[in-house]
User: Fold this.
Amino acid sequence: MSDPRHYEILRQHYPKADIVGCSTGGEIIGEDVNDNTIVTTSIQFDHTQTKVFKVLIKDVNGSHGAGSKLGSLLQGDSLAGVMILSDGTQVNGTDLINGLKETISESIPITGGLAGDGDQFQSTLVAGNNLPEAGAVVAVGFYGDRLQIKYGSCGGWDTFGPQRLITRSEGNILYELDGKPALLLYKKYLGAEAENLPGSGLLFPLTIYPEGSRDKALVRTILAVDEENQSMTFAGDIPQGHIAQLMRGDIDNLIEGASLAATAARFEGKNTAKLAVLVSCIGRKLLMGQRIADEIEAVKETLGDQTKTIGFYSYGELCPKLSDGFCELHNQTMTITTLSESEQ
Amino acid sequence: MPGIHKMLLRQIKKSTDLKKKLDKKKLYQLISQAYEEADKRYSLLHQAMDLMSDEMLELNSSLREEALKTKAIFQSTKDGILSVDSHGRIHSNNKAARNIFEYQDSELCTMSLEDLLPDFNFSLIKSRKKTCLEVSEFITETKGRRKGGEVFYAEVHIAPISLAEEELYVCNIRDITAQKEYEKNLYNAAYYDKLTKLPNRALFLDKIKEIIEQKKRNSTAKYALLFIDLDKFKMINDSLGHDAGDELLRQVACRLEKAARKYDIVSRLGGDEFTVLISNILDEKTAKAAAQRFINAFDEPFTILNRELFITASIGAHIISKDYKLAEEILRNSDLAMYKAKNSGRGRFEMFHEDQLTEVSALLHMENDLRKAISKGELVVFFQPIVETQHATIVGFESLVRWEHPKHGLILPDTFIHIAEETGLIKELGYYVLEESCRKIKAFQKLDRMGKEISLAVNISPRQLTTQEEVDKIINIIKEANLPPRALKLECTETAFMKDSKFIKKFFMQVKSLGVDLCIDDFGTGYSALEYIHRFPFDILKIDRTFINSMRENKKDLNLVTGIVALAHNLGLKVVAEGVEHIEELKLLRIMSVEYIQGYYFSRPLSFEAACSFLIENQISVFNENQISVTKAIC
Assistant:
């Protein structure tokens, strides 16, 4: 991705098109999941207009401002949907979404994901009508009343072990659970895999929820660890006082989760989506290994042959919650956005 | 390829190039990698489950410890705690609950809340919980029932606890019987009179306030208020002591309660003041009948310290109208009516009328005027002749103060002396009368050509004898007047020397040493305690006018006067009969050998000038001796 020639080739082939893309933790095309490849799809709308905006951020503190700025750039009467491709290591996804929600109506679906870097968590790149670069957040705005857009997001992870109180955290940095260093707990559970942190931390995602409100649970994955401070940085906020619980993945349940996400994103009746953009979590891929293709297969089976699929393994997924339609940062999920245009 | 795992199919696909040539090495690598991935997953899971198990065991152990601690706290708390299900059935209980209700654990577990708290409506709590999500707890006071049937006051605090599978309520129960008793005592102390156990002023005012509120709501119920004040109660306290006074108040309270009907409320405002709230009054007539009933309650004598005492009460009656806004106003107006009754002769009742307010207003003005009257010289001393009975010669005068009011004309002491006493002006007034009398004695004596030593009798109020300073001032006035012996007589009522007998006796001895005679005034109306007459150095006894006025028609009173005269003479005292208005009275008194008489029969109180003229005109005798003889013959 870092090689500028890839982008230039694409631009030569599609001189007028909006070109957006990002580095990944694995690429999805059709039913296949590949590593170290580039997958592309071209989308042509008959009626829908697109606009691409890009904002660069210097560090994680710029996340909210970036969201807010993109939101104001995207605003327009006929805005029908937004897809975000964001840097995956320098952004607090929760802040980014909160910034976006300040200016964009809650009725406009915002989906997308955070770029990946294999399982390295070093540096990610995002392109938006320009060469891919680090620290970029790109938003594609879809305008027009013919666009049909649906979405679904599901994890399928199982909680296990005791409930733990988040006793010390700041923003998306977690220090202590039940008064003990969180990093220590992770290392204990990961055993030999601990040396592969932060990537291996994805094998045990963390679910968090306010005490007594399990229905508001969110899943968080690790972006980085800080040995010196014994802290862990997550892709979204870890509020102090919330309850945290470790999660583990059962392959069948993860596949079932992907299938449920596809069911939610599936168009109803005879209408079928032309394209499904799949953003799945790198953590799923790390755990499932070669069996990761099973979840893509499950999605394909649910959506049907008519719907083309493209996507990537990410460091965080963006999608509205099905319960209230408010966009949230998700982790460890399969998140699917389906697109089509109505004939009338 | 049927029967082949789909992952293997994918591996084969990934190992096959575009020319459909299978790269076996790549295939084996993929298969090997898949095995390794599976092993890693298994190992990770296994390790995680082990760790989780350890953590859970540790957690379980600490929870068990925590549960033991909680149980110990649960069992050691002073309050009874029960957990009940949604039907009120008891699930668990603590030691305090068993102690409170006196049941064993095994018994409680088969019981429900209503067995222990029979009046408690548990379903109400449940319905509240359903209708109001915010209701998290409920506190009430109800009755608890112990195993033996004993009923006690319980404070019950109920809070629902949300558990995953069952709905439970925690009931905190406290035996508040002692607290209730304490509160009751506090309430009684605040709202009931300790001495008589009757409602006190505060509670009575509360009741009146309730009635005012009722009236506001257009209630047609009529009420009357009786304001009852014992007549001359102070005399009982002063003469027989406070214990006797208290006993009398207790007995009066009983009498009043007996006279009250079922819904009437008798209360003690304080001192000797009682009130009765009469309900179901139809009109003024029924209010008057009620007031008379309470007057009649004093017909029989009270037995205090083995003595029979006849006590009367004055009652102010008032029908409560809807115009009142303040309870205090109603009380004040009833009090006014009571004063009216007192001023009208005591032992009777008066209904409140608006014009009494005007009278009070006038009275207030009078108080202000009286303060100025002394300095303005509006107080004038009048003199009523005192006549020697046998020879009918004037032997002296009684000094009686009058007030020449610039607006209201001449005002008699009955109207203003009690104001002077209440406001303390009596002291200044007393000094003035004494000084003025001392000055006039010499003038009278100069006029008397018969050589008799004309004397003046001056009244001394008990209120003038409360401090040494006051007593000294009186003595100084007498000393400075430098009067001949027997020229001045001081008249005191019994109440003066019943309060602090040593102090008063000393005063009496001092004035006696200055040649002043002492006269016991209004004898017969007080307690006429022989002990005092004997102990104090009296020279003269003055029989109260009420006996003199009634002795002609009332044989008992005649006997009484005869007895008093005999008693006085036996004790070496001379007797003055005051209020002599008829010749028949004079004749009777002469027969009894009463030494001196005084009254309208001879003369009203006269101004100094008039008194002088009267003295000159009647140098020899005040009356025609023939008239007496005739009457004497009839007698």
The two ends of chain A are 39 Å apart (CA to CA).
